[in-house]
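pinned: reference chain
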Amino acid sequence: MKYNNISKIRKFIGVFLTFFILHSSFFIFTACTEPESSLVEYYEDNNLNTPNDTVYSVLGIINKIQKLADRTVLLGEIRGDLSEITENASTDLQQLANFTAGVDNAYNEVSDYYAVIQNCNFYLSRVDTMLSKRGERVFAREYAAVKAFRAWTYLQLAIHYGSVPFVTQPILTEKEGDVSLYPKYDIQQIANYFITDLAPYVDVKAPEWGSMNSLPSARFFIPVRVLLGDLCLWSGRYQEAAKYYHDYFTVLGNTRPLGISRIQWADYDFTSTMSGYTSAFSRGSDETLSYIPMETSEYNGIISLLPDVFNSTEDNNYFFQVTASNALKQLSRSQRYTLVYTNATTQTIDTICPPDTLVYENENLRGDLRLYSVLSQRSSGTINTNYSSIRQTNSKFPTSANSNRNSVTHQLILPTVTTYRLAPVYLRYAEALNRAGYPESAFAVLKWGINSITLERGYISAAEQARAGELIQYSQYTFTRENTIGIHSRGCGDADADSTYIIPSLPSRNDSILFVENLLVDEMALEESFEGLRFADLQRIALHRDDPAFLADKIARRSGTFNAALFQKLSDKKSWYLPLE
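pinned: its structure tokens
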């Protein structure tokens, strides 16, 4: 008998599954000195009031979130316009790409989201929030972290399911397990609820449990201030969103300038490149703000299969399932690369671009270089039909066993799935600034990066600087030209010197806002490909424009040609969401 998703929710939150929180037993924590993990039942009169109780319970929630890790990336990526499935893709991935996934699709398991929510609700209702030691609330950090986990999970639900049953208390009786008792909240309602719910905890730091298998445990947790920015952005509260993002970047003692990671041509003849760009995706990079720790083997628990989806590996006989779409390739190749150089003869500074007639050994070298840096394919020369003759490597999902081992201690490091990375947060900050009425400031994030020099040189007009105020104020000591570049320069050379990369003179500010938003959508594609963010980006922009055709047109063109049937389907917002029943 097959259950639809409403039945799965009801089945999950029934009385027999509500009286416990699964304590973590996955590999990452076996090195801890705490008592051995076990399945413990917490009945209605129990509170979580010891370090063992609360820490194990939070780890149990992370264990539940592991089931959402791969799915979050794939639902956001396969249903967007930047990736295409290959003929080797599973039926489930094909259905996602074609927007035909039903309730029996492997990636449509809504009960997994409610497993996280139920555990969060249970924890929040049971933890002893009043327990203090030396004047500090013992479980304040864990409490805020669990609130963020719940809000993040509901946000994912709303993005992929539309309106969903909204439950904020643990289900403790069979009667309470009736899904019809609960209202359905859409993404606006969910965002507004959790903005209020999380705001009091914006300054609470993440739990600090030390390093676990060479991973800093603080990165297991969602940054509350960034999540609040996202919720405000989805809700259309743009000024607040920009403020949350700005304050996250500038928090005293932990400032976060964008950095200078980029890939660029190494010479004026455009024959070789040099790159520090892919280091931005390392779990140890300052750009990695949070991630979901996964297991190294199925024996230990839940592993990530993303490397096998995006790469050629022994496990998949080198048949990768997802590659770059033609739409992404065309966008990348259409970008203008600009290089500032000093003429050796005249000692004058000049700018040049690769000539249109330049012949590249790889067409992904044309235009923006980020796709070339991230994705590579080569012929294996094999004639064995059991193995793919084309080998693909996607650096955003490393496959080497060596990449999961500490180079000094040789200790095994758990693989991770990133939930928040710095550059996409800067792009959402720019989106919020733009929608709040500050298009020049948003554009500055792309072309120059916002720092004191950008402001002093008048790249943002005095009038807009006055209106934007503290939203674009950055310390001259911690945000400099040496640690802040425009995001477009990450793949397009010295974009700050590109005289064609500008906001043209337009009739109104609203026209400028629309122009910059289109630039931001393209920049999101160039910077965020394969990370699972694209469908949400397109959906959010389409909702704010009240224009379903915006999303429909982008996705209908991902193959490089226009798919009229897919456009027609996605012009109806109902088709954006996975079915609950």
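why pinned: The chain is about 40% helix and 10% strand. The mean pLDDT is 89.
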